[in-house]
Amino acid sequence: MSIPFKFRMMFGRRSAYRRAFLDDKGELTTAGERVMADLAKFCRVRESITIVSPITRTVDTHASLQAEGRREVFNRLAYYLNLSEQDIYQLMERENARPE
C-alpha cells in the first residue's frame, strides 16, 4: 500500500514528538512531564483564554487571541504525543472512502 505524502508526514511528526518527550514504554519522561506541565500553565490549558483588561475591564481581544494561539500549539503537541499508528491508518481509510 502506498502511503500518501501527508500521512507520511504525520508518521514522521508523530515519531519526532514521541522521541522528544516519551520513553521506550510510551510514557512521558521526567523532562517531558516538566515541559508539558509548564506549557499547560503557560498556554492556559485548564482555564479560560478570555483575557479581561485590568484597566478597562473589557475583553482584551489581542491578549485573548494570543492565549488561543498558545493553547493551539499545546494541543498540537498533545495530539501528536497521543496519536497512534492505527489513528493515522483510520484517517487514511476515511479519506480513501470519500467520493471524489
Descriptive overview:
This protein has 100 residues and is an all-alpha fold. 65% of the residues lie in helices and 0% in strands. The protein has four helices and no strands. α1 crosses α3 (61-82). It is flat. The model has no long low-confidence stretch (mean pLDDT 94).
Explain the layout of strands and helices.
Elements (H helix, E strand, L loop, with lengths): L4 H17 L8 H13 L18 H22 L2 H13 L3
Helix pairs in contact: 1-3
Short summary of the structure?
With 100 residues, the protein is an all-alpha fold. Helix content is 65%, strand content 0%.
Question: Count of helices?
Answer: 4
Bin the helical content.
55-70%
Q: Can you tell me the overall shape? A: flat
Q: By helix and strand content, what is the structural category?
A: mainly alpha
What's the helix-strand series?
HHHH
Averaging pLDDT over every residue, what do you get? 94
- If you compute it from the alpha carbons, what radius of gyration comes out, rounded to the nearest whole angstrom? 18 Å
Low-confidence stretches are none
Report the count of strand segments: 0
The end-to-end distance, rounded to whole angstroms, is: 20 Å
Q: Please state roughly what percent of the residues sit in beta strands, choosing from under 5%, 5-15%, 15-25%, 25-35%, 35-45% or over 45%.
A: under 5%
Major beta sheet, specifics? none
